[in-house]
Design brief:
alpha/beta; Spore Coat Polysaccharide Biosynthesis Protein SpsA, Chain A; nine-stranded mixed sheet; 9 helices; globular
Length: about 260
């Protein structure tokens, strides 16, 4: 299937996590960054990138997540992931809502409020231009600890995402990481997820397994190094939340000064 540039991309935002290290019963994606729930910044970015429909996968505190949007959800559909069985499962629960959708979809994390619409546009442009079945936006980090590494083959093309916990010492030295910004051909993705095997240790289904399998079978997975390093900051603890808040506040102040 060729990509259809005339079709708006959908967006699937994974927002079902509890965030146990945040020290609060509040759903992780509702913790505020610069005065707004972090999930709302992600929604802003996908809207600005022209995506729709927007599917938000919810779990813990689903009603609170929905209520946080009040009346600003005409383009959003909330999809419940009752059991937390991994990122691959989280996308697969959207199968019914996607229906016969034949286009592409962004797959993003709801706890990444530093995401920029321009990065998503760059990702989508590269995806369409190369007629890819999947495109990953990557980043180069000085300290990649904890992130999935991008392994390239001898031709400098994408080969696989290797999770930090599964990486060899040689792979851990790789500084190019996958910060959970991806664009997939929807029918191909759903087909792959339906056939996905669970992780032998955790029993969960990982979306990060799919690009490597897809590349091996089709050689139609692309990577574009488009994510600024500062945008990759993870939020798993209150201290990390404060660090992201500082980065975003500085960015907003800079934008305000440039506009004045």
């Amino acid at each position: 299937m060729t990509n259809q540039q005339t079709t708006r991309p959908a967006a699937i935002i994974l927002a079902a996590g509890k965030g146990t290290r945040m020290g609060s019963d509040l759903p992780k994606v509702l913790h505020p960054v610069c005065g707004r729930p972090m999930l709302h910044w992600v929604i802003d970015a996908v809207r600005a990138a022209g995506a729709g429909p927007i599917l938000v996968v919810v779990g813990h505190g689903a009603d609170l997540v929905k209520a946080s949007f009040e009346s600003d959800h005409d383009d959003i559909e909330f999809v419940l992931q009752e059991s937390q069985l991994g990122t691959g499962h989280a996308v697969l629960v959207c199968r019914e809502q996607l229906g016969e959708f034949e286009g592409d979809a962004f797959i993003l994390a709801g706890d990444g409020p530093l995401i920029r619409a321009q990065t998503l546009k760059t990702l989508l442009d590269h995806h369409a231009r190369t007629d890819a079945l999947a495109t990953l936006a990557t980043s180069i980090l000085d300290d990649p600890t904890g992130y999935g590494r991008i392994v390239r083959n001898d031709h400098d093309r994408f080969e696989a995402i290797v999770e930090d916990r599964n990486a060899t010492d040689q792979q851990r030295a790789i500084r190019e990481v996958y910060p959970s910004y991806a664009c997939f051909d929807v029918p191909e993705l759903i087909k792959r997820l339906e056939a996905l095997e669970p992780d032998s240790i955790s029993g969960e289904y990982y979306l990060t397994t799919v690009p490597g399998e897809l590349q091996q079978d089709t050689n139609r997975v692309e990577i574009v190094t488009a994510v600024p390093a500062e945008d990759v900051l993870s939020i798993n603890t209150p201290d990390q939340l404060a660090a992201v808040d500082t980065v975003l506040e500085s960015r907003l102040n800079h934008s305000a000064e440039a506009a004045s």
